[in-house]
Amino acid sequence: MDQAYLFNTGEDYRSYHLLGSRPYTSSDSEGYFFSVWAPNAKTVCVIGDFNDWTPDVSPMAPSANTGIWTCRIPGAEQWDRYKYRILGADNRYYEKIDPYARHSETRPNDASILYDPDDYVWRDAEYMASRPNALAARPINIYEIHLGSWRRHPDGNFMNYREIAEDLASYCEEMGYTHVELMPVMEHPLDDSWGYQVTGYYSVTSRFGTPADFKYLVDRLHGAGIGVILDWVPAHFPKNLEGLVRFDGTPCFEYGDPRIGEHREWGTYVFNYEKAEVRSFLISNAIFWLDVYHADGIRVDAVTSMIYRNYGRTEYLPNKFGGTENIEAVGFLRQLNGIVRTEYPAVMMIAEESTSWANVTRPSDSGGLGFTHKWNMGWMHDTLDYFETDYYARNWHFEQLCFSMMYAFSENFILCLSHDEVVHGKKSLLDKMPGDPWRKFASLRTLFFYMIGHPGAKLNFMGSEFGQYIEWRFYEQLEWFMTQYESHRLLKDFVAELNRYYLHNRAFWISDHSWDGFEWLDLSDRANSVFLFQRKGERIEEKRIGAMNMVPVPLDRYRIPVDDQGDYRVAINTDDMRFGGSGYPILSEGETLIAAREGPWKGKPFYLELNLPPLSGLYIEIIPNGTDLKDEAADVPSVTGEDEPRNN
What we know:
The protein is an alpha+beta fold. Among the domains are: 3-113, Immunoglobulins (Immunoglobulin-like), CATH 2.60.40.10; 515-622, Immunoglobulin-like, CATH 2.60.40.1180. It contains 14 helices and 31 strands. The chain has an eight-stranded parallel barrel with strand order 10-11-14-18-19-20-21-22. A hairpin with a 4-residue loop joins β4 and β5. α4 (161-175) packs parallel to α5, α7 packs parallel to α9 (327-343) and α13 runs parallel beside α14.
């Protein structure tokens, strides 16, 4: 079937093979072929280095009634800069960058650059062949980064994709992350937008190198077993005149009515999802990053702004039924996710959606939006609000910390502590914690502890893992020098050990989307702000009991209800001195194990008795029969305690 016909009907999912620029070789010449969609243009020509930017030297011809204009330019070479000069339907001339350009100039320059896409030999075939289904049970622990501020050269200049690759792959292995999520790498004119105002949807930003360099970054991460998730912005695009706005002198890619076609708070235009060619452009773009760059996932930014016509607007254009839903945007998302799930079942499709819109992660052919995962914004807001509450008042906010379990399995969630939570005066994660420095670090360790124990995949933004004090600044690298100081270095050590514990213990992820994998053991101790839960695997010995003391007061001889008789051990203790904790004794002197005591307690037939250190989280495991614990128990504190149980 003719590809142009598919493009015009919204069913061309690889339109980057049809449109844009690409090299050609014929019997009598070599050069580049150009193809652009500008349906209402009166004339189109290509201007660039190859013709001294002279108008009308390289005219394009319309292709039947497709709205596509094409031409060949002999002698055009890789690295030549170019644009399209369009006489629009409004009789004005526009000089536009190529919407399908593979490479672009670095800001403040904005021309497209001719680039041969056959530029790299991949080495990740084994990794790609072994990728599990996106919905398979597995640990998912995502490290979100902004390439321009993760690390920089000593003089402040950006690192190249290849330089970043070596450091980032090693760091993720060291820290126990399974995936890297990159804030948008598509070309954008303004650093301050963090990449979320895209002008070059098919062009990886030249700030950090060439497309081949970026492929090396992905390849290197895959070689370390690290998945790559890309942030993607199909919700809106900036008003830069060189970009998509009024591309042919009319609202070509955007809605024409400002009541639905603008996000004034962002200074952007909204894609017209009703237009077939726009759907082809966007769906092809998502496929492009999966196909050409081997991405393992796409996080779709600002989904809420897409599916609600009244998002951020005092005056809006209702849908044909008078409602606030953007029906065509919903249809676009279902079409997109249906195609990706069919053709790339290993790829995660993640929605940043902040409302109670139902069935975001239900299959698109069953009435859902079709995403595989959704950011859990409710968990993030409630959890951070709780942890920002001063310790003396936490008992009054008891339900806030556990409320998320009321809906934890309604979608396939990712718990997100993202970049949005450490900017614009919100403070860094460490600085959100109340109290003196010791309490801040103790509380942050417990936050990470709780995140690992709560159902859902995990995402943490760069810098939080070592307790950066200041908010994230996109214009400079993270304050890595902080890891020279003991508190920050020990926090980083703790996060690495906690991450590895999560990876190697199936209870935290084998049944992550149902009550089969989680149980509250006790939620009655509001007075002491203690939370007790367990994560469950497929066998008794896979259970992991979590105990959190959320106030800076130790609780001696505390009882924890359990299902099973036997000996237990503390595997993770956020108050351990090697992580910067107080080292408060957990067991009586000479004890290394905790024997379950018989007797009903909080609905369970057995209980453990131990001390809960201040502002701490403990992960406790039952010991399988025949396990030699001489070495494993060596780090368990040897302590005394004589008071009566505190939770009787």
